[in-house]
Amino acid sequence: MTHFQDKVIYQIYPKSFKDTTGNGIGDLQGVIRQLPYLEDLGIDMIWLNPFYKSPQRDNGYDVADYKSVDPMFGTMDDFDQLVKAADKHGISLMLDMVLNHTSTEHEWFQRALKGEKKYQDYYILRDPKPDGSLPTNWASKFGGPSWAPFGDTGKYYLHLFDVTQADLNWRNPEVRQEMFDVVNFWLEKGVKGFRFDVINLIGKDEDYVDADDGVGKYLYTDRPLTHDFLQELNRETFGKYDDIITVGEMSSTTVENGVKYSNPDRDELSMIFSFHHLKVDYKDGEKWTLAPFDFQELKQILDEWQTGMSDGGGWNALFWNNHDQPRANSRFGDVENYPVETATMLAQTMHLLRGTPYVYQGEEIGMTNPDYPELDHFVDVETHNAYHELKEKGLPHEEAMNIIRAKSRDNGRTPMQWNTNLHAGFTEGTPWIDVAPNHTHINVENSKVSQEIRDYYKRLIRLRKELPIVSKGDYRGILLDHPSVYAYVREWEGQQLLVLNHFYAEPDTVEIPDEFLNKEAEMIIGNSGERTLEKEFQVGPYETVAFLLK
Questions:
Q1: How confident is residue 2, by pLDDT bands cut at 50, 70 and 90?
Q2: What is the pTM of this model?
Q3: Which of 219, 295, 418, 466 has a CA between 20 and 30 Å from the CA of residue 241?
Q4: Hey, what's the torsion of the CAs at 299, 300, 302, 307, to 10 degrees?
Q5: Choice among 197, 281, 364, 410 that is catalytic
């Protein structure tokens, strides 16, 4: 079994990481160039977002050829070079596998359209209802219905995402074999990890029926067959190796299924991403709203997942940020007044939990939402759709823009801030999306703030490797009703690690339970100078501290 418990994974969005050609788009050579930086940070593995040939309707999650490199990012030679170069720095690669759907430009879909029965069976085609309406009333996750006309055949194809992303028919053994071939192709190139996109949607039921709620999520998510398919994928591909790390992106999943996907005895995946903790600032469950985050709900969700996965022998992927999320420090802290405290507190909250931490490019230097002044700075299709929907609901322009600035996926996609140059050292050309204006004081090379944050990340990453209690210990949430602090304990072989994370600027007091006061307490990391553990423990703005108790 892979020892992934002490690993830290760094996510790179290649388009925005480092451009070496001057065309304004990051590339694989850019990743190679920055490997010394990543080795210095101490990470073990790079997760790369999709770089395969793609029309880029959904930023590469609409794959037109699974065994290729899009010329936008370089060549297959560049990829092979990256694997070798990364290995020299002690870093391995995790690739993003988008196996639920292909682009409608994929050869399989095009051949299906031309009438080839074999390839029509690769997709989910259905006749309309007798009254001529769509096969079901399901909604696409990107808005609108989830069925579109399949050429002029009179049939419809299922697309749970964009209309150019046709869902694959995993019930067809030939489709599964194609998917195994894709994964094996990259394994043979020396890839050591896979992140499987929306993988809990592949086991759809045979019968397609209308949804009571008109959305249908519950009819195609986490269906029992998904587990069978994952076990088969494991057996036919990465399970043949003993050093491969896998993570499933699990849309709207449950703790119970999370355990099944990631308990090693079941031979499915190493770990899973769940997203419930990143919806605590959605007013009435709606993303495109403004609301202060619900701290009690945040704690309750983190605690529920930590406890449930620990009890069931499952494993969490730990993260605040990715390419689909606004920057966590802009969401959950105060980047103006407490940039270092906010960033280090959020990092420590995650890194000392039970699970495998993921660092998203730029979070380790305190990158923030860019706060673009106008709509035309935003590129993301979902963002533009949301703006128009907000306007249709009658919101004034500035109110709609405030929501967009807080919630757009582009917040996480701005170019990596390397230095104070015109485009932050990301490109010599014109970047595909504007650099955040604060790159003059938040960047890798010339910023004291960024340096402090990065040094803290390095310490957290080191601790995971040095202290088994961090990588292997059990989890227990404590003081869960405290109004401003999320506190928990990790336990391993008679030791305890007490972690206190204060999520607000106003100082507060934590009453430390007696069970921790009669032990020898050594502070091992904190963002507020030397501290000693005492009954009435005062916490400063966005303070985080961890004590090892023996």
A1: low
A2: 0.97
A3: 466
A4: 130
A5: 197
- 237 and 179 inside one domain: yes
489 plus 419 within the same structural domain: no
User: Who contacts 116 (Cβ-Cβ below 8 Å, separation ≥6)?
Assistant: none
Give yes or no: residues 316 and 250 share one domain.
yes
Looking at the structure, do residues 139 and 14 belong to the same domain, yes or no? Answer: no
Kindly tell me if the per-residue pLDDT of 144 is higher than 80: yes
Q: What is the pLDDT of residue 381?
A: 81
Confidence check: pLDDT of 149 > 50: yes
Query: Distance between CA 232 and CA 221 in Å, rounded?
Result: 18
Domain endpoint, select from 149, 167, 185: 167
**Beta strands 147-149 and 156-158: pairing type?**
antiparallel
pLDDT score, position 3: 79
**For range 165-183, the mean pLDDT:** 98
> Which of 151, 167, 183 delimits the end of a domain?
167
What pLDDT is stored for residue 1 in this prediction?
Answer: 46
Residue 286 among the catalytic residues: no
Q: Is residue 131 part of a domain?
A: yes
Set 19, 249, 364, 410: catalytic member: 249
Element (H, E) at 495: strand 495-502
- Are 313 and 435 members of one domain? yes
Active-site residue flag, 249: yes
In a shared domain, residues 60 and 193:
yes
Number of folded domains that form the chain? 3
The CATH number given to whatever domain includes residue 43 is 3.20.20.80
**Whether the predicted pLDDT of 523 surpasses 50:** yes
SS3 per-residue string spanning 356-396:
EEEEECCHHHCCCCCCCCCHHHCCCHHHHHHHHHHHHCCCC
Residues 15 and 162 placed together within one structural domain of the fold: no
Q: Supply 100's token pair.
A: 């639920």
Q: Is the pLDDT of residue 105 over 50?
A: yes
* R_g of the chain computed on alpha carbons: 23
Task: Report if residue 500 sits inside a domain.
Answer: yes
Tell me if 521 sits within 8 A of 548, measured CB to CB: yes
Domain that holds residue 131: 107-167
Q: Give 341-381 pLDDT, tens digit per residue.
A: 999 999 999 999 999 999 999 999 999 999 999 999 999 98
What is residue 66's predicted lDDT score, i.e. its pLDDT?
98
Do 304 and 327 lie in one domain? The reply is yes
